[in-house]
Amino acid sequence: MGRFIYGVLLAAALAFAPIAHADPTQDYLNQLSGTVGFTVTPFTSMFLTNAGNAICADLRAGVSPEDAAQRQLSYPGSTIALTRLMVSAAHQNICPDVP
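and the corresponding structure tokens:
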């Protein structure tokens, strides 16, 4: 009887457990926020997200990672080192399907 109740409780817990959903954009922002040179705030996250999506569009269109990094140099305070990190983070998290 105890095993039956345990089994029912376990089945109920699994049935009502929250489903984990990965958020590629948030993973991208989290990766950047752990990097020196990036300050991720609600304000900057909008710009970084737009940049990450633009990077992925470039990569999908056949633009090289280096050229995609060069294209992001227009952002205030950006350097080639930082934009290369953005390309890497975007590629890993937002568009890992791009070879």
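(Above: one complete record from the training split.) Residues 20-93 form one domain.
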